[in-house]
Amino acid sequence: MNQILNATYRYTDDPRRGYSGTSPQARNGFAEIVIDGNKPYTVSVGPDGRWSWTPPADWTPGEHIVSVRMIDAAGNIGNPAQFIQVVDYTAPDAPRLLNMYDDQGDITGSFDAGRMTDDRRPTLTGVAEKGTVVYLKEGDTVIGSAQADAKTGIWTLEPDADLSDGTHQLTLVAVETFNGKLREGEPSEPFELLIGRDGAAATVISHAVDDAGPVTGSLLSGALTDDATPQLHGSAPAGSTVFVQYRNASGEWVDGGAAQMDGTRWSWTPPAELDAGSWEFRAGQEGSWSDSFGLDIAFAGSDALHATLTHATDDFGPVTGMLLSGALTDDTTPTLSGRGEANSNVVVRYGIAGEFTHSVVVTVGADSNWSFTPPALEYGVWSFAAQAQGDSQWSDTFELTLMPGGQ
């Protein structure tokens, strides 16, 4: 579509939106209407200079460039009037809730719907249609609102007043002003906020500890470890009895017994060695469990312990984002990322034109993720590979083509 500088916008939700006007100079002539540069529509101008036009088919949603010009009876052509017709038939989609955040009390941070919080005005963040107003509602009552960013659609809001103790069933709805009219979209699926004074005392799994094998240390949720009996740690109200349950990827929750308490801190070790695979853990009491905590367990010789190089990130220039192997990029310092055993070392080698001429050692985080940003690279085709230090197997080669303009 061609562009119109300093364009005038018109808005409609009428599928047969037409145009009309009066042009005394063109009486007994013609009006010519062109949509998006296609074949013109022509209608007669009456002896009084009046004309009107209705499209023969429904407008498609979106933006359309419209050009209207008058042709008088002698065939003289006037200057065209151009504008952009915005056609939109639908109210905004339901907003999406991405995060809820508690910034009050002893324990703060993000929490899931249905979990207790002592923050009576938690911060909600999400995404909606750009520029719309997002309303937080309890039943039919609006209890908070915010405008979605005009470029990203991101919105953040807090309830206008403190929420009372107990369960609150809430929804989100987006409202826009279109063609001078308010249009309200469908509400989101309901979600629960559970407000209580004991919210700050909720049971939390903070980390695990790997004390087996050559690589040991603290583990965060999502980590890869070779410890078949990782010790879990967390916090809970003093005097609490904390129970732990666990399950593998396809199993049922298994009772793991009570954790050992030390003031407000607790620890727990599986009663038996866990098999290789993905495991989930949760702590608390029936009906009030913590967020799940995940660990992947793999043993010496397993392919799962080989380092991987999964993607790169471009944060330079007008186009940014994740890069997969084979991508083009204008970022001469792309950040390479992958996974390995938590707290281990990974060797990253790289070079241009198919030859590996550089290498560096990076430490894998407690969540099993690692990243490396090379010094500025010259334009060309670069190859990268990763290997767990001491391992004999390299990851699949990851290639990026660096060039001006990139993606």
Report on the structure:
The protein has 407 residues and is mainly β. It has four domains: 9-87, Immunoglobulin-like, CATH 2.60.40; 96-200, Immunoglobulin-like, CATH 2.60.40; 203-300, Sandwich (Immunoglobulin-like); 306-402, Immunoglobulins (Immunoglobulin-like, Sandwich), CATH 2.60.40.10. It is built from no helices and 37 strands. The chain has strands at 9-12, 19-22, 30-35, 41-44, 50-53, 62-71, 81-87, 96-102, 109-110, 116-117, 123-127, 133-138, 141-147, 154-157, 166-178, 181-184, 191-195, 204-210, 217-219, 223-225, 231-235, 243-248, 254-258, 260-262, 265-268, 277-285, 288-289, 293-297, 308-314, 321-323, 327-329, 335-339, 345-352, 358-363, 369-372, 380-388, 398-402. The strands form eight sheets. Strands 10, 12, 13, 15, 16 and 17 form a six-stranded mixed sheet that branches. Strands 20, 22, 23, 26, 27 and 28 form a six-stranded mixed sheet that branches. A hairpin with a 2-residue loop joins strand 12 (133-138) and strand 13 (141-147). The radius of gyration is 31 Å and the shape is flat. It starts with 8 loop residues before the first strand and ends in a 5-residue tail after the last strand. The model has no long low-confidence stretch (mean pLDDT 90).
